[in-house]
Backbone:
């Protein structure tokens, strides 16, 4: 915009640029002063300081008012663009209008979180034809960099149970739902008739999203179970459980959804256990963004209706 060899920005009063912009618009010191709500002497003083700093008259008297010099005309386009960008940066962001917006949001979510949130979220989403949702698997290493860069908008899952799940404390968090465990097996499975006295020596399936051989609860309680099949995904569980003698302890919302489509019995776990806490996490940089706030509200509403 200006020759930085001749203008020292450290000592240059940037407020003078507003005066220069007003003079371009009004071509009159008195009208520029009125536009800026300044006195005429203050505006004249500002013009004098501009002339001194830029070593150019900038405006000269003519029949049509104050005419800009070639130096001033060279400044006008860059100056107007710069002031407009500053104004836009300082202006409160416009509210997000999902009905007319065109945007794609990206969620990184565990199997468990997807099963809980996505069915209801998909029902809500059809009302917004221009807003797309892309769900990617939750990577083994927590996607902190992707959240910061905006490549991922939200992370959904159960965290802080295993070393690979530990999310940075600097991230924003919100509890979506708490899940208790239930026992799941084929219809009429004998082990589920008396859940308070279930025989843990019977063969079981265990879903270990991180590929482990025991759950955090098993480790803490020193529970000994006869797990004969470990799988990293919930998706396979209903096929295995409905067609074999294996049974499993699964999160209740997941189990209830499976029982809607497969011949499965679901009974409470009588042994006391801490709940699973599904959370949504995001970077503090996105906290005040209207579109991101709308997304978080949609995810929370879907989880609470699950």
Residues:
């Amino acid at each position: 915009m200006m020759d930085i060899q001749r203008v020292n920005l450290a000592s240059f009063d940037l407020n003078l640029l507003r005066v220069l912009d007003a003079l371009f618009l009004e071509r009159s010191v008195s009208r520029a002063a009125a536009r800026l709500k300044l006195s005429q002497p203050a505006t004249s003083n500002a013009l004098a300081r501009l002339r001194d700093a830029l070593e150019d008259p900038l405006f000269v008297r003519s029949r049509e008012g104050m005419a800009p010099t070639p130096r001033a005309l060279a400044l006008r386009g860059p100056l107007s663009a710069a002031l407009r960008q500053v104004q836009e940066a300082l202006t409160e962001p416009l509210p997000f209008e999902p009905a007319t917006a065109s945007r794609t949001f990206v969620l990184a979510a565990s199997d468990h979180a997807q099963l809980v949130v996505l069915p209801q979220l998909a029902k809500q989403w059809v009302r917004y034809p221009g807003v797309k949702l892309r769900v990617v698997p939750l990577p083994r290493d927590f996607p902190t960099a992707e959240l910061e860069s905006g490549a991922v908008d939200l992370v959904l899952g159960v965290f802080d149970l295993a070393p690979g799940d530990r999310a940075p404390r600097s991230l924003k968090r919100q509890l979506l739902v708490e899940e208790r465990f239930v026992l799941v097996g084929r219809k009429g499975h004998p082990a589920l008739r008396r859940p308070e006295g279930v025989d843990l020596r019977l063969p079981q399936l265990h879903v270990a999203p991180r590929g482990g051989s025991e759950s955090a609860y098993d480790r803490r309680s020193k529970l000994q179970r006869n797990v004969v099949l470990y799988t990293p995904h919930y998706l396979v569980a209903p096929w295995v459980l409905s067609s074999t003698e294996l049974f499993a302890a699964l999160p209740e919302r997941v189990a209830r959804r499976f029982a809607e489509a497969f011949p499965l019995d679901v009974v409470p776990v009588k042994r006391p256990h801490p709940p699973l806490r599904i959370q949504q996490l995001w970077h503090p940089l996105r906290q005040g963004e209207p579109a991101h706030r709308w997304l978080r509200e949609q995810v929370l509403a879907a989880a609470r209706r699950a």
Notes: The chain has ten helices and twelve strands. The longest strand covers residues 172-179. Confidence is low (pLDDT under 50) at residues 1-5.
